[in-house]
Every structure is written in C-alpha cells, then in structure tokens.
Write a structure and sequence with these properties.
Distance between the termini: 45 Å
Radius of gyration: 16 Å
Structural class: mainly alpha
Strand content: under 5%
Bound molecules: SN-glycerol-3-phosphate
Length: 194
C-alpha cells in the first residue's frame, strides 16, 4: 500500500478509539451519550461529575492524535499530516460507533501538538482564556479554532495551516447545535451537570 494511504488508515484507526465512552463505561457510569450534550468528549464526561475521568478523556483523545502524527512522522512530514487528518476524522466519524463520534476538539489539539507544538500552545492559551472568562467549553474551542489557522499561516507553516483550516471548518460543522445554544443563551457551562 502507498505510504500516505497507510498513514491515513493508521491515523484513522488510532483516532477512532472512543476513550470517553470506554472510560465512562469502565467506571460504571453508563453511556455518556445519554447525558448532557450526548457527546463522547471530555466536556460531556465532566457532566458525569467525575473530573478525573474527564481529564483522562481529554488527555487520551489528545494523545491519540499526537501519537498518530509522531509515528507517521518517522516516515515523512507528509505522512505525519495525513495521519493527523486521519486521527481527527477517526475521532469524529468512528466506524465502531456507526460514524457518530465526537466534536474533535481534543484530537485537534493533539494533532497540532504533534505537528507544530507552538500552535498547540496558542490553542491552549486562547481556550483557557475564553473558558475561564465565559465558562463555555464550546465557545472557547470555536474561538481558538478560528485563531489557529491564521496564526499558523502567519508563522509560515503553510501546509499545516491548510490542514487546520479544514479541521476548523469540520469543528464548526460539528458544533452547529452548540452555536445555536450559545446564540439562544441555553448552552451548558463547564462543570454544570447534565
Ligand atoms: O469539545 C467539545 C466541546 O466544545 C463541546 O462539548 O459536550 O458541550 O457539546 P459539549
């Protein structure tokens, strides 16, 4: 198989591991998809009230993106980019969950960490500032995801900027319901139980 196709499938398989679902099930908390926003990500795992599990979900959903990029990067920089795209797509459209996965934010950050860590710092800083001031996880992710491709472009990593422009568009599409709730003032705040 050609290298890039292999990198894409490899990234996809890693990315499609639904850690939020696995961890909440292992902890006996039932199906995280039946509470809060119904999402499998760390923000919604936090709505179970278990902070450690939410932190672990964030970390593992991130690291699967980072690991995919770093391993594929041994072969070539292009393979790293393709594997990162695969991991992100795998998280959002996992074949195991009938393609109904997460919203991609943690994996976006993890892929960015593997490809260009300075970009991940920017994402994390913006996310923390907006989340701290507004208590909206979704809003923090959306603002950070707008800034990242622009910042990457300005910093001269144009190939990575192009990838993240695409990932940002997908993040926005996956946050349609969140955007509607933000607009109508009904979005759940961080830590509020679902
Ligand atoms: O990372 C996902 C976050 O932006 C929104 O999560 O569960 O509030 O839809 P949720």
């Amino acid at each position: 198989i050609p290298l890039l196709l292999f990198a894409l499938v490899f990234g996809y398989l890693l990315g499609s591991i639904p850690f939020g679902l696995i961890l909440t099930r292992m902890a006996g908390l039932g199906d995280v998809r039946s509470i809060g926003s119904g999402n499998i990500g760390a923000t919604n795992v936090l709505r179970t009230g278990n902070k450690k599990l939410a932190a672990a979900t964030l970390l593992l959903d991130m690291l699967k993106g980072t690991v995919a990029v770093l391993i594929a990067g041994i072969a070539s920089p292009e393979a790293a980019i393709v594997a990162g795209f695969g991991a992100f797509v795998g998280h959002i459209f996992p074949v195991w969950l009938k393609f109904k996965g997460g919203k991609g934010v943690a994996t976006y950050l993890g892929v960015l960490l593997g490809l260009f860590w300075q970009g991940a710092l920017i994402f994390a800083a913006v996310w923390l500032i907006i989340a701290y001031t507004t208590r909206y996880s979704s809003l923090a992710a959306l603002v950070a995801a707008i800034i990242v491709p622009i910042a990457l472009y300005i910093m001269g990593v144009h190939q990575i900027a192009a990838l993240f422009l695409v990932l940002t568009i997908i993040v926005f599409i996956k946050h349609r319901a969140n955007i509607q709730r933000l607009a109508s003032g009904t979005e759940g705040k961080i830590g509020a139980k679902g």
